[in-house]
Specification:
Organism: Litoribrevibacter albus
Pfam family, one: Phage_integrase
Largest sheet: 3 strands, antiparallel
Protein name: Site-specific integrase
Radius of gyration: 17 Å
GO molecular function: DNA binding
Helix content: 55-70%
Keywords: DNA integration, DNA recombination
CATH class: Mainly Alpha
Length: about 190
């Protein structure tokens, strides 16, 4: 699996959502938008059930770490989730598979991470970006760091235990740190 990047330009973030909807589906675009707002790993994101949400909070146990993620949903995420629930009131999962014949005769399950990965990679190729499912999480972390310069907050949001891991993860390089020193004169 190749390394993917955070999307550092907000216009590109919006463009990716549009291209995912045009080239693939509204559902894949919704994965992108909700993924940006929740900063979860793709396996956890796709496994969200409507019952995991109470009022404006999502509470799930992360598959990789076993840690509990207790996330306050922002208005954009709530709006998208409510729209999906209204369109598909019988669905169990937010991103439930329903389009192929196999889904009709099986127990409810989410869309596959392979499908989402392929969609993201194709749009990334079109935009000449290393785009993958982890890009959503990295992008959220990167923009939170740019807005706050508080690595502790980013670590907590991503549920990381090391500053170095978090900085590398969100794509903050020595060049970025050097630029901050040059641009900020006191």
């Amino acid at each position: 699996m190749s390394e993917v990047d955070a999307v550092k330009d907000l216009d590109t973030v919006r463009l990716i959502g549009l291209l995912l909807e045009r080239r693939f589906s509204k559902q894949v675009s919704d994965v992108w938008h909700i993924g940006l707002n929740l900063a979860l790993r793709i396996s956890d994101l796709l496994s969200i059930r409507f019952e995991d949400i109470s009022d404006d909070r999502l509470i799930i146990r992360e598959g990789k770490t076993g840690k509990t993620a207790n996330i306050q949903l922002n208005p954009k995420a709530i709006s998208i989730i409510n729209r999906i629930q209204q369109e598909y009131p019988n669905h169990e999962y937010i991103f439930q598979s329903y389009r192929n014949r196999q889904s009709i005769n099986r127990a409810p399950h989410p869309i596959s991470r392979r499908y989402v990965s392929r969609a993201f990679a194709e749009v990334g190729q079109e935009l000449k970006l290393n785009l993958g499912t982890h890009s959503m999480r990295k992008t959220r972390g990167y923009h939170l760091y740019q807005n706050t310069k508080d690595i502790g907050r980013v670590m907590k949001m991503l549920r990381h235990s090391s500053e170095g891991v978090t900085l590398r993860y969100i794509g903050i390089t020595q060049e970025d740190v050097d630029k901050d020193f040059v641009e900020l004169e006191i």
